Structures are given as structure tokens and as C-alpha cells.
Amino acid sequence: MAKVEIAEPAKADIQEAFDWWSENRSAIQAAEWYERIFEAITTLQSMPERCPRVSESGLSRAGVRQLLFGIGSRPTHRVVFYFDVDADTVTILRVRHHGQDEL
Hints:
Elements: E1 3-6, H1 8-24, H2 27-42, H3 57-61, E2 64-69, E3 77-84, E4 89-97
Parallel strand pairs: 1-4
Antiparallel strand pairs: 2-3, 3-4
Helix pairs in contact: 1-2
């Protein structure tokens, strides 16, 4: 199983999304989203290469991938990560809402 590390920018993204959900939706939905995003990230310990490469060409060529995530019927966020095969480590780089500009 790969080790999963969350970079500081991704931690900030998660906190920002949680705060937005709390202020604009509900605290209950925010807590559910927060819990489930970490559950989704944890799944990357196993077979992270199952996820497609990102659409941004430069990042895609570098091997950066994305895990699409949402608590409803459609994904609302993408977990952008890099899998270092040699170190068997997944590094979560960013967590982006689908409406945000590309990286």
C-alpha cells in the first residue's frame, strides 16, 4: 500500500471548502463532506494509478493524476495528486472545486 501525504496547499483547500459548506450550505453537510473527502483520499493507498491524469497538459506529462469526488450523484471536486512509484508515495497537491480554473 502506498503512503499518502497531504501537502499544505491541499490542506488549505480542504479547510476552505469545509468553511464554504458550513457558511453556505449547512454544518452537517460540511462535516459529511469533510469526513468523506478524507475517506476518498485514503482509497489512493491502493492502486492510485487507476485515476486518470489531469487535463492540464504540462501536469499530465509530469504524471499528475486526479481523483474525482463528490457527496452527491456527481463529482464536485477533484483531488489532484502525484504518485511517486519509486517511493510508493501519493502526494495530494490540491483539492479543487470543478468550477475553479485549471492549475
